[in-house]
Amino acid sequence: MPAIRLAVAVVSTALAMSRHPVVRAGVRAALSNPQTRDAAVNATRNAAYNAGVVARHLLGRGRSS
């Protein structure tokens, strides 16, 4: 269970940070540049893929679907 609590803490912290006005302004400024936007899209896709790999590793292939 500690892994689940850690995951909940990370997600709740990320949500709280994403709602901060300074963070939103910085993201808006960074994403106005097309090259930065493409890098952010690629980083998001890589993070989602890696999260799936970790989930499959922890849960096993039979339980993830």
Span between N and C termini?
21 Å
Task: State the low-pLDDT regions, or none.
Answer: none
Fraction of residues in β-strands: under 5%
Number of beta strands? 0
Radius of gyration equals 15 Å
Order of helices and strands: HHH
Helix content bin = over 70%
The SS-based structural class is mainly alpha
Count the DSSP helices.
Answer: 3
Question: If you average the pLDDT, what whole number results?
Answer: 85
Q: Major beta sheet, specifics?
A: none
Mass-distribution shape: flat
Short description:
This protein has helices at 2-18, 21-31, 34-59. It has 65 residues and is mainly α.
Key descriptive features of the protein:
65 residues, 83% helix
Write the layout of secondary structure elements.
Blueprint: H1 2-18, H2 21-31, H3 34-59
Characterise the protein shown here:
The chain has 65 residues and is mostly helical. The protein has a domain at 37-65. The chain contains three helices and no strands. The chain has helices at residues 2-18, 21-31, 34-59. The chain is flat and about 40 Å long.
